[in-house]
Amino acid sequence: MSEYSFRLAKAEEVNAIWEILQEAIDRRKADGSVQWQDGYPNLQVVAKDIERDAGYVLVDGDRLVGYCALFIDDEPAYDDIQGNWLTDGSFVVFHRVAVSKDYVGKGIAQQLLLHIESFARNRKTPSLRADTNFDNAAMLRIFEKLNYKYCGEVVFRGGSRKAFEKVLH
């Protein structure tokens, strides 16, 4: 797929991952977005992801270039979608997608999503679900490019978010 490798994050990488997330938080703010401007995500969230074996990193050699959290059939907010999911079965949900500032504009977020697809396929999970803020133009473009379908809105941490699903064949 690429020269990048995708693997579980290690506990000793929590600070490097948090640095990548902080850079992404700053970029969201600079873009005028309200997403991630309220103290979430934070270092404790990342540490919990890693503890639950849900934190994954994209690595270029020995350098962390991207991060996400992956969960299988585990997003209670998705039970109350204002709209309809494409499937009723098992799904992989991903959260906290972030790319190192040194790798922005190099297609790393898209690479990360392609690795998430492989993760789901390897586990015979038939679909991917995700949500994003209405003003996250970069992620909305990636969802469109990778053929995610808009399914409606979900309320996540008190705010309405656009929800997407991609059915894997």
Written overview of the protein:
The structure is a single chain. The chain is of the alpha+beta class and about 170 residues long. The chain has a single domain, classed as Aminopeptidase, CATH 3.40.630. It is about 30% helix and about 30% strand. The chain contains 4 helices and 8 strands, in the order βααββββαβαββ. It has helices spanning about 15-30, 45-50, 110-120, 135-145; strands at about 5-10, 55-60, 65-70, 80-85, 90-100, 125-130, 150-155, 160-165. The protein has an 8-stranded mixed sheet with strand order 1-2-3-5-6-8-7-4. The longest helix is centred in the first third of the chain and has 17 residues, at about 15-30. The radius of gyration is 15 Å and the shape is globular.
